[in-house]
Amino acid sequence: MGESFQILALDGGGYKGMFAAALLERLEADLGISVVEHFDLITGTSTGAIIALGLGAGLTPTQITSFYVEHGEKIFPARHRGRARRAFTSKFSPAPLRCALEQVLGTRTLGESKVPLVIPSYDLTNDDVYVFRTPHSPRFRRDRHELMVDVALASSAAPTYLPAHELRGLRLIDGGVWANNPTMVGVVEAVSSFGRALAEVSVFSLGTTTDTSYRRPRLDRGGLLAWGREAFDIVMRGQNLAARNTAALMLGSENLLRVDPSVPAKVLRLDGVDPEQLRGRAEHVSRHVCSDFEQRFTQHRPPPYTPQPIQGETDV
User: Fold this and answer.
1) Helices and strands per DSSP (H, E), number in the chain
2) d(Cα 111, Cα 117) in Å, to the nearest integer?
3) Which of 108, 152, 176, 187 could disulfide-link 180, Cβ–Cβ 3.0 to 4.6 Å?
4) What share of the chain is helix, strand, coil (3-state, %, to 5)?
5) Cα separation of 135 and 144, whole Å?
6) How far apart are CA 174 and CA 285, in angstroms?
């Protein structure tokens, strides 16, 4: 068996992504470490993609948490949180999100990431999954040139919330439609691109909190009206559970640490949270996770990451 290969997997969840950033911030403070230095690969979907790209750009979890605090209300303005607007067009304009991302990511490209990244999206033009990858393999030619801002917008364009992101003739939307919990995306990448055995792979899978919901009996025989409000939440939860359970079966539960605390329904929303409440929840959860995280993940430090040249090219 070779040296361990550690993956940080970051769920989608809109504004609730601040929970994941704040928990990473608290772990760094408690353990006196830089979290990113202990992972061979980071994968993130939607808001998790924003966190992953921020870490790849060299931002600290503290800076990423501040990003949510400073820009969250501008990206998801309260005046647009009603359902009526969402029935006919995307609920929010992408302009505030783009502006905020440009402030923190600038003109950095995916190829400039300090750590290998895998970012899921979905291609409406070709009706197919789409995955952005850093040049951690010489096979990956094109994505290295994409702006991190474009990758973030492509992965976080949640249907009905934000419009599709147009990039090189493609219409790209939120990777959460197929990999809201990207744990298995990371595992597949470890095996297929890094040549690692499953027995070598460990994952810290970080959610953005999950509502505890009561599924009403009307769903049993319900039509569009009954399922309209419930379908999205159930699909997302089913995805998350499938990814978690599959990873646990393939890797062994001892090689998967999943953190996704349950919260009362409707307390936290994809487009609306109380930042201080979310910080407090991250503070509480981190107390229970800290020692487990330290024992499982802080002993490993991957070798320095060097982007691979394109096949047939030589480094200059």
Assistant:
1) 11, 10
2) 10
3) 176
4) 50, 15, 35
5) 6
6) 27
- Distances in Å between the alpha carbon of 23 and those of 131, 134, 209, 292, 302? 26, 25, 11, 14, 22
CA distances from 285 to 11, 277, 281, 282 (A): 16, 12, 6, 5
* Amino acid symbol at 206: L
Q: What are the structure tokens assigned to 55, written together?
A: 């870490």
Comparing CA positions, the residue from 114, 116, 108, 135 lying closest to residue 307 is: 135
pTM: 0.91
User: Could you report the per-residue pLDDT of 8-54, keeping only the tens digit for each?
Assistant: 999 998 888 989 999 999 999 999 999 999 999 999 999 999 999 99
From CA 117, how far away is CA 134, in angstroms rounded? 5
Between CA 284 and CA 272, with CA 245 as vertex, the angle to 5 degrees is 45
Contacts of 20 (CB under 8 A, 6+ apart): 10, 11, 13, 47, 48, 51, 206, 207, 208
Residue 216 DSSP symbol: -
Output the CA torsion 179→181→182→185 (10° steps). -70
